[in-house]
Amino acid sequence: MMGTLAASLAGKKIRTTEDLYQADVEGDIENVKGILKITTIRVKYHLKLKADQKEGAGEAFASYLSQCPAAQSVIGCIKIQDDLDLEEIA
């Protein structure tokens, strides 16, 4: 998922080097009818960018899941919660 979002951001000319782009990921494992299952994945992306790139970042974020092979493989089985935290830099 992180790679797909990075590719979408690159299409908007937004850099995603390690010092500018990170993600915090966590998930829930629950007992569902006696079987342990991953039920939720939460991803919070952190992106540092210039003020004039915010609109492009929002557009990329709004559409990346529909293009992501990993997300599309589990949507319907695992709930995906994602968020994008933007930090403006000079």
Describe this structure in words.
- By secondary structure, the protein is an alpha+beta fold.
- 29% of the residues lie in helices and 41% in strands.
- The chain has helices spanning 2-11, 54-63, 69-74, and strands at 21-32, 35-49, 79-88.
- A 3-stranded mixed β-sheet has the order 1-2-3, covered by helices on one side.
- A hairpin with a 2-residue loop joins strand 1 and strand 2 (35-49).
- Helix 1 (2-11) crosses helix 2 (54-63).
- The chain is elongated and about 50 Å long.
- The model has no long low-confidence stretch (mean pLDDT 97).
Present the secondary structure layout.
Layout: H1 2-11, E1 21-32, E2 35-49, H2 54-63, H3 69-74, E3 79-88
Parallel strand pairs: 2-3
Antiparallel strand pairs: 1-2
Helix pairs in contact: 1-2
Which short descriptors sum up this protein?
90 residues; alpha+beta; 3 helices; 3 strands; 41% strand; elongated
Could you give a short description of this structure?
The protein is of the alpha+beta class and 90 residues long. The chain has helices at residues 2-11, 54-63, 69-74; strands at residues 21-32, 35-49, 79-88. It is elongated and about 50 Å long.
